[in-house]
Amino acid sequence: MSRSYLTTPLFYVNAEPHLGHTYTMVVVDTVARYARSRGVETFFLTGTDEHGDKIVEAAQAAGETPKAYADRISALFRSTWDACGIRYDHFIRTTDEHHRQFVRDVLSRIHATGDIYFGEYAGLYCTGCERFYTEKELVDGKCPDHKIEPRFIKEENYFFRMSRYQQRLLDHLRDHPDWIRPERYRNEILGFLREPLQDLSISRPKARLTWGIELPFDSNFVTYVWFDALLNYASAAALQGERFFADFWPCAEHFIAKDILKPHGVYWPTMLMAAGLPLYRHLNVHGYWTVEGDKMSKSLGNVVAPRAMIEKYGNDPFRYFLLRESVFGLDADFREETLVNRYNGDLANNVGNLVSRTLSMLQRYFQGAIPEPTRPEPIDRELEDAYAAAEREIDEHMASLLFNRALESLLRATDRANKYIVETAPFTLAKQPAEMARVGTILATLADALVRTARLAAPFLPDTATRIADLLALSPGALDGPTPAWGRALPAGHRVRPSAALFPRIESRK
Length: 510
Fold this sequence. Notes:
Structural class: alpha/beta
Oligomer: single chain
Shape: elongated
Strand content: 15-25%
């Protein structure tokens, strides 16, 4: 059986969930739902990263201990994803005991090989990034992400011989050209590796920081937050058992934002090499979200809270906007006006209209029962072909993480179904008793189109798919498994429920 091990980054608990976090979660949730719908055994991992300097600072500002603060914010992430309908399989925290022990075991293993050594380092340290920068990496002397000057630190620490694995990493990138995707991010890592790779400081002295996982070979130091957090992907898999690890770990698909490309594209694979573990299948990298052209910022007051958007517009419209309005790998811009336009144009006028008109006519002309179709005409076959094409295209686009293109394919099929109603005009034919057999065929065809709409929409719009299935009085699980042959999804005589508005237009809300 084919398998997929999908991971989000561990979200850092120095801030509450926002638009950027939510986009990553929606993307991975969509991929997971799509894989499951295709019979792929799937495991979806997410969680929170809870150690390091920034957590201590945030906890102090909140008047809490680091552990109490981490508990509170981690629970907020989890409740937010639950409210968003995200179906993850495991939520890991770097404060979990099994993870702590796994990190210590890996550190001991690598230390025993000689790939961890003690030394002194002096460099420019950004607390926001929790890492050292070289002069070349700075922009006008400042951290490129946080726009502040890093401070000079000189201290003794333990170092990982990352430089030993530079050529091996380059060889892997050459032999697996789609290992990091989209290609622009692979090229970014290749550009970074043109310079000699420096060894990585993997500890922090307790004299400066105590909130972390203590090194197993020196109690005076805690583990550097990246060497701790990156191991979550393997520690969570190991927690599921040896058989699970053997089956799923080679199928790992990591999803991250571009700001953490270097740790995931350089630190992480070399750590795995040193630990004797296989590398992940793909590193999938997405861009940033801005808000009306500006970077999200508390000081600007433009941070988009996912729960507020869901309460205002609903879960599926918010999901739809994130997937439809962005191109995976590129930056995207959030504008509430655009969300409303997408809601009204794509969801209310297209999908919602198709469901409402079809069910209303079934109730009006056949008391809600699916009619016995007669021999189909060419125009009926055209609608069948449109949905078959949409299914093929969605498969192709999902393989390339082109979620926006996949949704375009779905909307083309539903748009064709709406045009089919206009072209066949069942509401006009129904005025002539002799044409009722033809009306029945048209509505049976449309009912089949609704089943396919729900099936194709399920990974992207799970609540909508469930509501359509409920309106069609389908049994639980009817949207899973192989697509039934056209005309077989709903037998003649099957009764559907009265129409309901899936997407009331925004203008009607007060």
